[in-house]
Amino acid sequence: MDEISEHVPIEDNLVAQQQTLLWNDDYFLSIAPGEYNRPISILMDEHAEELSFPTIYGGQFRTYRDGVVVTPFMQATSELRRTDRRATDPQHLFYIAAKIMRLRVIKCVNVAFKHVGQGTSITKETIQSEEYINNCLETNLAFLRCIPNSAWFWSDRKKDVFAMIRQLGPPTAFMTLSANETGWENMLKLLYKLKNEGTELSDEF
Predict the structure, then answer these.
(1) Which phi and psi (to 5°) does residue 29 adopt?
(2) pLDDT tens profile 159-175
(3) I want to staple 144 with a disulfide (CB 3.0 to 4.6 A). Which of 46, 79, 113, 152 is the partner?
(4) What domain of life does the native source organism fall in (predicted)?
(5) Is 49 exposed, middle or buried (CB count within 10 Å of its CB: 0-12, 13-18, 19+)?
(6) Which residue ranges make up each domain of the chain?
């Protein structure tokens, strides 16, 4: 057995077994490299998106010309409209949507310090008043209007519609138009071509 077996020193064997630890006998054993560091939000980390999706960006950071100010919405719009469809990965799309939504909320949030002056009291009748409750909600939750499809977003749109009705009069008809995504052959062919690097789809599909 000793003739065919290979003698491996115990030090080399321990080093070979390390897969998740940074092992260096000359320096130290680093079990938690990020200890005592403060985690950075994805909104504050400039390169969080490139580092989170290496298959899309290949480890390369975005670069822009001097003097050009680019917003996250402009970045997302540019990448989603390109012929290179790597950026249309579902996980990447949800990441971008969550990031833009958080940025909108942060921009719209206002912290208000309220002070009840002397002689001002809130009674039971005040709490039961629907107008008082609606006024409190209108003031404290106004930042939710920037989130699409939220209750406050559609409440704002409803007020716009009522304002148009008051100014222009009642409408005679409402018409909603939407594309038939599953039955639109030309669009399905175009999406197939973009997904499969220019491969055409025959009419027999």
Answers:
(1) -105, 110
(2) 898 999 999 888 787 77
(3) 152
(4) Eukaryota
(5) buried
(6) 143-173, 175-205
